Amino acid sequence: MSARLIDGKAAAAEMNQMSLERAQHLREKGIEPHLAVILVGDNPASQTYVRSKEKACERANIRSTAIRMPAETTQAELVDKVRELNADKSVHGILVQLPLPDHLSADEVIDAIDPDKDVDGFHPVNMGRLSIGLPSMVPCTPAGIMVLLKKYGIDPAGRHAVIVGRSRIVGRPMAMLLINAHATVTVCNTRTPNLEDFTRSADILIVATGHRDTVNGSMIKPGATVIDVGINRVDGRLYGDVSEDAFETAGAMTPVPGGVGPMTVAMLLSNTLDIAERKG
Ligand code: NDP
Hints:
The protein is of the alpha/beta class and 280 residues long. The protein has 10 helices and 11 strands.
């Protein structure tokens, strides 16, 4: 392996320690930071994610309330629950665990969240503010990637950043953050012809497709920074979206697991504390 390892696990541990201290400060002022998480249905992966968020909150001394609703919950019931949490002054952050069961509209539920309590940063108001470079809640995964780039001294300014994937939770907000950081940004999707022509020109390559081996070592510019967002579980093992041979070509790269994943949870805690510090 020649690439420098971008250690998300270590960076997240540092952030979580800071979060613990921030939560302590708030509690000394009589403010209990509080994250509410809504989980609808019994998707096993979502249940695991929610449990790991609860544990992370507990470690950081942040109160968490998980609201588990049955799979047959109606759109109106879910929106009512969100509105109830909007009105609850003890709640700082609200998160609706995605994906939702097929009969529910994620867009409509996200729209119902008070933008000031939108810890995930998915509300159109926050997305809009981010896209024009105004302060906003920033989606946790791309926010965590920006922290990693900074920590490893990788300045996007003047660099060509290529993002493979254009989702609401990763690709699009990532593009906005990199534009705001003065990178030249290209965003690829499934209709991009000859993907390797784009990936090979990237100084910073971010891959978030949900497909193992979307990018391999031959598709990377030697010395590039590679951020692998993917989490693919195969036979009980986790793989990213980038093949392991990319470590031979890249200059710096995140591993899977232990790269972007731990930073996502760390940013969720940090976003919750940002709101609690602002609102009290
Ligand atoms: P989505 O399925 O919502 O989006 C995937 C995107 O990748 C789409 O825009 C799709 O294009 C594009 N894409 C898929 N295959 C290709 C391809 N071969 N070439 C070019 N583009 C392609 O996924 P998410 O963004 O939600 O997640 C992506 C991955 O990141 C998943 O593995 C997910 O588990 C992981 N993830 C990890 C997190 C973490 O904390 N580490 C957090 C969030 C996600 P099109 O729009 O044309 O369909």
